[in-house]
Recover the amino acids of this structure.
């Protein structure tokens, strides 16, 4: 593949110029981070697993009419995506109390919530991605009220889809985060799901045993993160072969 220009590098992914206008190539790294990158490690094969899993979820969402940035997978670590104008928010949907919600409100982890709760966090690593209200979002111009309504609707549809898929393979969807971007079609704006959906961005517990299959395994030193992600991929039937043998990035600066 031709050499391309790096557009952006985050903690878990790298974006490169795409082969056509309005596209990007998203490369999934093996890096694992926690606690705002205070804890770091390289987990061999993680990028290939997340590439396949995000492809699986994004394709499923596209199939039920939930628009995403995903176009197609290019290889074991890269996928072609639409370039979008990212809204600087993480949208979190919680079905069960865990993580920061349990700490913030003193609710025991594992407590089922009376309904899915949607939260917004301002994307800024230097601030620790703080929780913000809809008033903050509108006052600072990050999104309009209509945008917020559309984002909540998108997030709840993603929740319905992911919950059903996971339940079908014996996994409980505790919570997840998505990012949303704007695309323009003439003067018309549309919001679509962007970034990724993978065990990096979800909490996933075995329905029977409560075993964790998400990044909490890394955060809390509960075992092998690669094994946890591999189990999710195995249950969903998308386990790639020879994930440890995948080469480093083909698209370089």
């Amino acid at each position: 593949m031709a050499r391309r220009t790096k557009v952006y590098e985050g903690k878990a992914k790298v974006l490169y110029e795409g082969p056509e206008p309005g596209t990007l190539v998203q490369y999934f790294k093996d890096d694992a981070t926690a606690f705002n990158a205070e804890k770091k490690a390289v987990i061999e094969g993680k990028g290939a697993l997340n590439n396949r899993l995000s492809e699986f979820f994004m394709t499923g969402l596209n199939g039920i009419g939930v628009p995403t940035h995903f176009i197609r997978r290019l290889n074991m670590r890269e996928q072609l995506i639409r370039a979008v104008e990212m809204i600087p928010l993480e949208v979190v949907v919680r079905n069960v109390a865990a993580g920061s919600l349990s700490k913030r409100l003193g609710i025991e982890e594992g407590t089922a919530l009376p309904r899915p709760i949607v939260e917004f966090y301002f994307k800024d690593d230097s601030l620790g991605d703080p929780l913000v209200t809809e008033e903050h979002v509108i006052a600072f111009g990050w999104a309009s009220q209509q945008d917020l309504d559309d984002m909540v609707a998108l997030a709840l549809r993603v929740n319905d889809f992911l919950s059903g898929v996971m339940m079908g393979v014996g996994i409980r969807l505790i919570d997840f985060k998505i990012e949303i971007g704007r695309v323009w079609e003439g003067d018309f704006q549309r919001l679509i799901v962007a970034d990724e959906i993978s065990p990096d961005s979800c909490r996933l517990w075995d329905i029977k045993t409560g075993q964790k299959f998400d990044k909490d395994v890394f955060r809390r030193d509960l075992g092998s993160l690669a094994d946890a992600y591999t189990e999710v991929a195995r249950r969903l039937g998308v386990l790639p072969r020879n994930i440890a043998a995948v080469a480093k990035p083909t698209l370089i600066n």
